[in-house]
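Annotated sample (chain length 134).
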Amino acid sequence: MTRRRNRNTDVNISLTPMIDIMTVLLAVFMVTTPMLTTGIDLNLPRAGTSALTGNDHAIQISVDATGEYYVGETKLSRDDAVRRVVAMRGENPDLTIMINGDASADYGAVMSIMGKLKDAGFQRVGLRTQLDVE
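Output written by the structure step:
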């Protein structure tokens, strides 16, 4: 005897849950992206028409006009800033560091943090500038 099964299955795929999830993810990224580029207000030096803007995924260290160091918006001493960045490096040895030095900041303060970062093993340390628009 042969038995036949009658299968009535609904094979429609509902895209509504996936669209809802993607909409939420888009909203989260739109809200959090501007927060990733926060920092202190600096007057960056002008450097010609091909400014060194840096990598958007780089860790930002700022040196203000008075020679104070900041990682993000957190004011730290030079050695504490280096320790914080070393801790952020984790398992990514190719991490890029961008130093945002105010145009009126002491050259020694900017070069001091740059040297300490090189001593800590960072190979990719750059200086951020802005376009010299006339």
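Annotation: Residues 16-36 form the longest helix (21 residues).
Annotation: The helical segments are 16-36, 78-89, 107-119.
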